[in-house]
Design a protein that fits this description.
Layout lengths: L13 H27 L2 H36 L3 H37 L4 H17 L4 H25 L3 H21 L6 H33 L1
Helix pairs in contact: 1-2, 1-7, 2-3, 3-4, 3-5, 4-5, 5-6, 6-7
């Protein structure tokens, strides 16, 4: 049984490093959000932090999935007996599909939680959207681009919200926040094309790296601004 690997062979492992940077950025945002929640008890910070924690966990599953893929690629070359190779691949396939499913589910849940913080709906609509997202995450195994297009839709609305924030208050931190989410949104479209040309996977990963570095810079700027404000 074969597994589809979108990354070019020369990029193996480098995408894992990029995803580790992404996890660090998302987890740092989670920590700061919880810190602010403990200070002022504003539940928006709590939900904001939980959304980024879910996304951080999703990338951890993605990293584990990538290790499974790379293990299969290298192991098939080294082991001769067909029967033994098949058993190893079959076991790894279970890890691959479980990890990839958890990556999709947690990512969409994280984006959904962020989405609900800014776009208000009644409880019935929230439950319906949540059900549809979980269904999409499961069935996107058969059409991977469905997951990326769904993520694109949620991210585009979030990016637009942050753009409106920047329009209302034109400071550098708001601009960076909008730009980082705009780039993350762009990656989802780029990922759609990796089936046709693996180099798009590299491009998407590099754009993702820039986006999350910008998020870290934004967080540092907000933190420094908060310290200066408290001193005054």
């Amino acid at each position: 049984m074969y597994q589809l690997v979108f990354s070019p062979r020369w990029f193996f492992g480098k995408d894992v490093i990029i995803d580790l940077v992404t996890v660090a950025a998302l987890f740092t945002i989670f920590v700061f959000a919880i810190k602010y929640y403990k200070i002022n008890k504003n539940k928006n910070y709590l939900w904001f932090g939980m959304a980024f924690l879910l996304m951080a966990l999703s990338f951890i599953f993605k990293i584990a999935t990538n290790f499974t893929i790379y293990y299969n690629v290298w192991h098939v070359k080294q082991i001769g007996p067909v029967l033994f190779t098949y058993k190893v691949l079959k076991k790894s396939d279970l890890l691959f599909y479980t990890g990839f499913l958890m990556y999709r589910v947690l990512m969409l849940l994280g984006l959904y939680v962020l989405f609900t913080r800014y776009i208000k709906q009644n409880n019935y609509v929230k439950i319906l959207i949540l059900y549809l997202l979980i269904t999409i995450a499961y069935f996107s195994d058969y059409a991977y681009y469905v997951f990326h297009l769904t993520s694109f839709a949620l991210l585009a609305m979030l990016a637009y919200h942050y753009f409106q924030n920047y329009q209302n208050r034109k400071v550098v931190s708001n601009l960076l926040l909008f730009a980082s989410f705009a780039l993350i949104t762009l990656t989802q479209i780029i990922f759609v094309f990796v089936f046709y040309q693996p180099i798009f996977y590299v491009v998407a990963q590099m754009v993702q790296l820039v986006a999350y570095i910008m998020l870290i810079i934004t967080l540092i700027m907000v933190q420094n601004y908060g310290k200066k404000k408290r001193k005054k």
